[in-house]
Design goal:
The complex is a heterodimer of chains A (290) and B (339). Chain A is mostly helical and 290 residues long. Chain A has a single domain, classed as ABC transporter involved in vitamin B12 uptake, BtuC (Orthogonal Bundle), CATH 1.10.3470. Chain A is built from 11 helices and 2 strands; from the N terminus they run ααααββααααααα. A two-stranded antiparallel sheet of chain A has the order 1-2. In chain A, a hairpin with a 4-residue loop joins strand 1 and strand 2. Chain A starts with a helix and ends in a 13-residue tail after the last helix. In chain A, 53% of the residues are buried. Chain B has 339 residues and is mainly alpha-helical. The chains are: A mainly alpha (290), B mainly alpha (339). At the A-B interface, helix 4, helix 9 and helix 11 of A face helix 5, helix 9, helix 11, helix 13 and helix 16 of B.
Chain lengths: 290, 339
């Protein structure tokens, strides 16, 4: 029993990263119609940002957790202005290809500088001890990751559904022409939303640094899994991304406990099942049949 | 009739270049150009002529590489038999993947094919007894009834007929009534459906054909290099093929050949120069082409030749902004709202 619950916890922690990345991907897709391939690279840059700040400037984890996502948000805004914006009027496949190219450049730039070996990043001292959860002891840092990502997901949900900013963004996502007609400058929201999504990826990256291997390829491998997650949850659906992220995390962890051979491919099996029964995704709305 | 003559000269020129290639470049590079060109053509068959961006062709290229290697290693069959067995395996794998993937269009199709290819990658990584895991399959023989093909120069000519067969198949598909329907589906799926064409079945069939061609290329690559490895099923291989198509010109077939030649040469130059970080260059090429040069090389050249000014795929993709085609609802716009 303790084993089962503990494995569920492990699943929730790894699901937290999937959820945070899927959430950013969905927010960006909703507003811009862009599937951001570079999202994995932003996540990797987040982890490397924390690593570089610690080793070169001695900046601790907590400062990095605040600064790196902001830096990535700014970086995301610049990228949007410089490149992605120019292709906004074209078939979204072009921006998919563009962000793929950007991801390759970022990944190999970091690889050239730091090589492919994984870098260690120590968890912050405050959290570097087990916490007693009743049934078992659990690493404190993992508990923090779970709480932080749940808080981040809740904050995004609150921001989008309960605030004026959220109302504008949702309106601009669903009915851009009508929103414009109501006197809202939809174009002005595109860049900050992209930056926000990039910042979320950066946050996930910093959170991942102390418990995942920090290396240039960490994002590319994860982003493809995240693509499967958003297809399952329904791309553009905030709730779908979060539920599918945590759900896939737990399912994979449990699968690892009982059928380890299947655990890596499980997410793709789920995706196949969703495509078969509900092609729009669990929380996605029906795509017009064309 | 003059146009017909020009086309014949063009094909003749292409054949001459194909035959002369091992004299022009280092023979192993010539083989790489030929097989990558076939892979790029298979991707263009979907992207340029059906409007489906497959980001998962590494699955078919790599699966065929393993299947070809296994057949050649365990049965000692002549290499063309092994390669064709590999291509058939890739086609069989494409049936279920295609069946599920064609349920989505546009950007989703790209994501779904990428995800399924990653699944194939994980399976190849896990099934070590079959694929050799990280070590891959080594020492794949290139037997052809006892003829010594160990020299890459001669092997190129042994492999060329199979490559040309694949290129010819793609060309025939595009020119056939079946290919016309594919273009109709690409340009306006709703209308094609209204005319009574089973759109999904057409997409599935072309997906399987495309994967078979990719498999043919992958098998030849494995035999040519003597090994099949995890690299063959990795997503970078899919991305590479898409880059070749976009650089050469989407929907032009021949552009893919030029794109393949340039990318293979570029990688060779970077590798010999000891440059670590090929992705910086290929990624930058991706960005530049997509931003500034969306017609690709062949597409741009064809624009200057007044005769060949019809480039359906590009004009469509470039025109397709929100509300740019009032007669037909842009599927992307619908996807965006309905997702």
């Amino acid at each position: 029993m303790a084993n089962f619950v503990q494995q569920c916890f492990n699943g929730l922690v790894s699901g937290a990263f999937l959820a945070l990345l899927a959430l950013g991907l969905s927010v960006i897709f909703g507003m811009l119609g862009v599937v951001n391939f570079a999202h994995g690279a932003f996540y990797m840059l987040g982890a490397f940002g924390a690593y570089v700040l610690l080793t070169n400037a001695g900046v601790n984890f907590w400062l990095a957790l605040a600064a790196v996502p902001v830096a990535l948000a700014v970086f995301g805004c610049l990228l949007e202005r410089a490149f992605i914006h120019r292709l906004a009027a074209l078939d979204p496949l072009y921006n998919f290809l563009l962000t793929f190219g950007i991801a390759l450049v970022l990944q190999d730039l970091v690889k050239r500088e730091y090589g492919v070996t994984s870098r260690p990043y120590p968890p912050p001292a405050e959290l570097n001890h087990p916490i007693d959860l009743g049934l078992f002891n659990y690493p404190g840092y993992q508990v923090f990751v779970l709480a932080a990502s749940a808080a981040a997901c809740a904050a995004v949900w609150y921001l989008l559904t309960r605030t004026r900013v959220g109302v504008v963004v949702r309106a601009a996502t669903e009915r851009p022409e009508l929103t414009r007609a109501l006197g809202i400058n939809v174009g002005a929201w595109v860049t900050p939303v992209f930056g926000f999504g990039a910042g979320l990826a950066g946050l996930a990256g910093v959170l991942a640094a102390p418990m995942r291997a920090v290396n240039p390829l960490m994002g590319a491998d994860l982003i493809i899994t995240v693509f499967a997650v958003v297809v399952i949850g329904g791309l553009g659906s905030i709730v779908g991304s979060v539920v599918a992220g945590f759900g896939i995390g737990v399912a994979t962890a449990l699968c690892n406990l009982y059928v380890p051979a299947l655990s890596q491919t499980l997410v793709f099996v789920f995706m196949a099942a969703v495509l078969l029964w509900r092609p729009a995704g669990l929380f996605g709305r029906e795509e017009a049949r064309v | 009739m003059r146009g017909h003559g020009m086309k014949r000269w063009g094909i003749l020129l292409g054949l001459v270049v194909a035959l002369a290639l091992p004299w022009l470049v280092y023979p192993p590079i010539a083989l790489d150009i030929a097989v990558w060109a076939l892979l790029a053509i298979s991707v263009d068959l979907l992207l340029g002529f059906t409007g489906l961006l497959s980001f998962g062709h590494a699955a078919f290229w790599g699966t065929a590489a393993y299947a070809t290697g296994l057949v050649a290693l365990h049965t000692g069959a002549p290499f063309p038999v092994a390669v064709i067995a590999g291509a058939v395996t890739a086609g069989l794998l494409a049936a279920p993947i295609g069946y599920l993937s064609v349920k989505r269009t546009g950007i989703y199709f790209a994501m779904v094919t990428l995800a399924f290819a990653q699944m194939v990658y994980f399976i190849a990584n896990q099934w070590r007894s079959l694929t050799g895991g990280e070590n891959g399959l080594q020492g794949i023989p290139r037997d052809l009834f006892g003829v010594d093909l160990s020299d890459p120069f001669y092997f190129y000519y042994a492999a060329l007929p199979l490559v040309l067969l694949g290129v010819f198949a793609a060309w025939r598909i595009v020119r056939s009534p079946f290919g016309r329907v594919l273009v109709a589906i690409r340009d306006n799926p709703a209308r094609a459906r209204a005319l009574g064409y089973p759109v999904e079945r057409y997409k599935l069939l072309v997906f399987v054909l495309s994967a078979t061609l990719a498999g043919l290329a992958g098998g030849l690559h494995a035999v040519g290099h003597g090994f099949a490895s995890m690299d063959d099923v990795h997503w970078t291989t899919s991305g590479q093929a898409v880059l070749m198509v976009v650089l050469g010109g989407i929907g032009t077939l021949w552009g893919s050949v030029i794109g393949a030649a340039l990318v293979v040469q570029l990688e060779d130059v970077l590798a010999t120069a000891g440059f670590d970080g090929t992705g910086i260059v290929t990624g930058a090429v991706f960005v530049l082409v997509v931003l500034l040069f969306r017609r690709g090389i062949w597409g741009t050249a064809a624009m200057w030749l007044p005769r060949a000014r019809r480039l359906p795929a590009l004009s469509r993709l470039a025109r397709r902004g929100p509300g740019a085609t009032p007669s037909a609802p842009a599927p992307e716009a619908l996807v965006k709202k309905g997702a």
